[in-house]
Amino acid sequence: MPTNFDCDLGYAIGYAAGVFVEAERTGLLVDISKLKEDVSQWEVGGVPFSSLMQFKEPEPGDRSSKLTYSIRPRSRLLYDLSYESSMPDPCERTLVSPGPAQFEGPCSGTKTQTLCMPQAQRVRQMAKTEQLIKELKSKASAGCQVEVLKAVKMLLQGGVDLMKQRPDLDGRR
Predict the structure, then answer these.
(1) Domain range for residue 37?
(2) Is the pTM of this model over 0.85?
(3) Amino acid 83: pLDDT
(4) What is the total count of domains within the chain?
């Protein structure tokens, strides 16, 4: 059963996705930060899908090469691994059992345990998630024609170019 935090997060993601669709901002992944704070302090934004991918063009004149792509690794989070050394030995750690989810009362606003974990554990979880996404992507694109992939790339690049032209989106103009 989802907790109040799960419901708030799901609602925020769905609402933001609806705002993106209504504003015709397709190709964006909803990004919510400051999840450890109160819901009113969360920051909601969008990340272009194309920024998560790398495309490698085939060499000019080489018709046997195919367009390749991959998801970028999140190496920027590896700085968090220094926190791993501060973890106590497993036999010295305190067992945390939050019990059943509370929907009312003083414990209803308790944050999920994942947000309370040291960053190193979350980095490992994210790495595993990225590996699973990569596997899913390779299975989903198996047998996909090169022309389709090129068309998708062209559409994503067009979206990026359009966003760069809008002064209200990048905040620099």
Answers:
(1) 4-58+67-88+112-167
(2) no
(3) 46
(4) 1
